[in-house]
Amino acid sequence: MVGLSNSEKLILLFLYNWERPIRAGDLFQTLRKEYNFDRSRQTLHSLVKKLRKNELISWEPHRLVRLTEIGKEHALHITWHMHLLENYFQETLDLKAVVRRKEALRLTPIVSCEFIDAITKFHQDDCELKEAIKAGNLCTEESKALEEGGYSE
Ligand SMILES: [Zn+2]
Ligand SMILES: [Zn+2]
Questions:
Q1: Looking at the structure, do residues 46 and 99 belong to the same domain, yes or no?
Q2: For a FRET experiment, which of 26, 74, 87, 114 has its CA 20 to 30 Å from that of 108?
Q3: Residue 38 C-alpha to ligand 2 middle, in angstroms?
Q4: Domain that holds residue 12
Q5: Does residue 78 share a domain with residue 14?
């Protein structure tokens, strides 16, 4: 996850939750409408190409955009961050569901694994996110690696 821009994280987050391949044009429309994506079509195009170069997604012109296996891991990790943020808001603040989602979406690309780790205590064990355990492990691994200074970009 280190080295990904906020917009790239948003794209991965979206693709994970969309759960199926998507046309590049539809990706742009849906990101704008539902993920507060405020960049141009051209910017999205270069972000998609960059994600492909880093082997996080596969895509050819006129073909569908889809997550690779490595892409899926990153996307799950980001999904976990958003899930815990929403959960934290739900447990601690009096906010409407739609506001919780909007704020979580805004914060997800910028919060650290360390922060997520600190709010995990508000999370219930009976989680509806089907890959919660795997996601939690990805998060722990990354915060450990960061603590040890193991990542170089
Ligand atoms: Zn949960
Ligand atoms: Zn994390």
A1: no
A2: 26
A3: 24
A4: 6-68
A5: no
Distance 77 CA to ligand 2 centre (A): 6
Residue 132: HSE in the Cβ half-sphere, 13 Å Cα cutoff: 12
> Does one domain contain both 85 and 44?
no
Each residue's pLDDT tens digit, 9-58: 999 999 999 999 999 999 999 999 999 899 999 999 999 999 999 999 99
The dihedral of CA 112, 117, 121, 125: what is its sign? positive
- Measure 138 CA to ligand 2 centroid, in angstroms: 7
What number of residues does the chain have? Answer: 153
pTM, two decimals, is: 0.91
Separation between Cα atoms, residue 131 and residue 128, nearest integer Å: 9
What is the C-alpha separation between 22 and 64, in angstroms, rounded? 5
Q: Measuring CA to CA, which residue among 66, 79, 112, 64 is closest to residue 9?
A: 79
Residue list, CB under 5 A from ion ligand 1: 127, 129
Nearest CA to 113 out of 91, 143, 82, 93 is that of 143
**What distance in Å separates the CA atoms of residue 135 and residue 62, rounded to the nearest whole number?**
32
